[in-house]
Amino acid sequence: MNKLAIRLLTLAILSLTLAAAPVVTAVYAAPDNDPPPPPKKKKKSSEARPGSEQTAFAQNAFANGYRAAYAAIYERHDYASAIEQLKALGRDDSAAVANLIGYSYRKLGDYKVSQIWYERALKADPSHVKTWQYYGLWQVEQGNRDQAQYHLNRIAELTGTTSEEYRSLAAALEKPPGTGLVY
């Protein structure tokens, strides 16, 4: 009976511990939470083969740098620092990287430079949904509601109307023009 009581008490404590433990979930703005793959370079005969430590190290360094910049943007709202971190990756030809640079410039209020980066992101990947969303929000902020609607339609073609990106831009377009809201 004593062993049974100890087991029940242990089970009760474990259950309470699990129930009281905070649930840890990472929340990211899809689809940019995972860094794009590093660029593929032409190999010289003396370079390491794919899968080698050197290649894995470069991929890991890029992924870590991307995640650090991502955290600077979405957790600390340190857009200037994030721009420098993203540019230092040497991958501003990637839609995901260019989009985050454009987003950071937009948040800093530099709309002309932001537009350049959004267009660069779409040139790199015309199907990059997050860029269509952020550039659409840029259009709303600029009062270009027809262009924002075009971006919304493009998102609908790519992901349908239930995606986070679609809902976000649609909600921004539902607000009356001239409210001065910044997204």
Automatic annotation (TrEMBL):
Name of one Pfam family that matches: TPR_8
Signal peptide: 1-29
Domain of life according to the entry: Bacteria
TPR repeats: 95-128
SUPFAM superfamilies linked: TPR-like
Keyword line: Signal, TPR repeat
Annotated stretches, region: Disordered: 29-52
Protein name: Uncharacterized protein
Organism annotation: Bradyrhizobium icense
